[in-house]
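Weekly structure sync, notes
Attendees: PL (lead), two postdocs, one rotation student
Agenda item 3: pending single-chain targets
PL asked that the sequence for the first pending target be pasted directly into the notes so everyone works from the same version. It is reproduced below exactly as submitted, 211 residues in total.
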Amino acid sequence: MTFGKRQLLVGALVVALGAAVYLNWQFSGTKPVEVTDTPETSSSKQLGQTVYVNTEVSGETAAKSQTSDADKKAKDDANSKEAIETAALNADTDTNDYFSSERRKRTQAYDEAVRSLQDIAASEDKSSTARQEAVQALEKLSAAIKAESGIEAEVRTKGFKDCIALINNDTCTVIVPSASLNDATAITIKDIVNRQSGIGFDKITVTPYNG
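Predicted structure, written out during the meeting:
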């Protein structure tokens, strides 16, 4: 009987010792490490975030690259358009300069001719015939100046940016920009010259300016 009690006592002590060890381990603060907190899992999570961020950055970089290409194309197109417009403007400027310059030269020549003829017509040292011829020349020159002005104004109404008409005796030369000149417009110009000056079609020359 005594032996049986000893066995029960030993067994109770073993159970109590086991319970104490378990409780001590349970409350000692040493808990099982969860899978989500392991370095491997943490690294994987961080790696996942890094990949996600890099994907966003890659997409943003691609978008910026596309935007940059589009901006470059737009800039190139704008530069090309500006170059074309500048070339056209320079061409127009050169054309305008040419016709303006020719008109100035013509005006200077006419002014000199008018002064000379007026001097002859008013000179008592000249014969009556010379004075009369000077007066007739003045009248003819005045008519030519008026006809030239009328020709140029009417030719511009036909779509030409500019022109210059030069009447010499019974002939006339009309210079116009080459871009608008063709067989049909040349006939139109000759018709204008004939109506404004009375000069025959066979004595009218239409010349293109290629500047």
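Discussion points:
- The chain has four helices and three strands.
- The domain at 53-209 is CATH 1.10.287.4300 (Helix Hairpins).
Action: rotation student to compare against the earlier draft before next sync.
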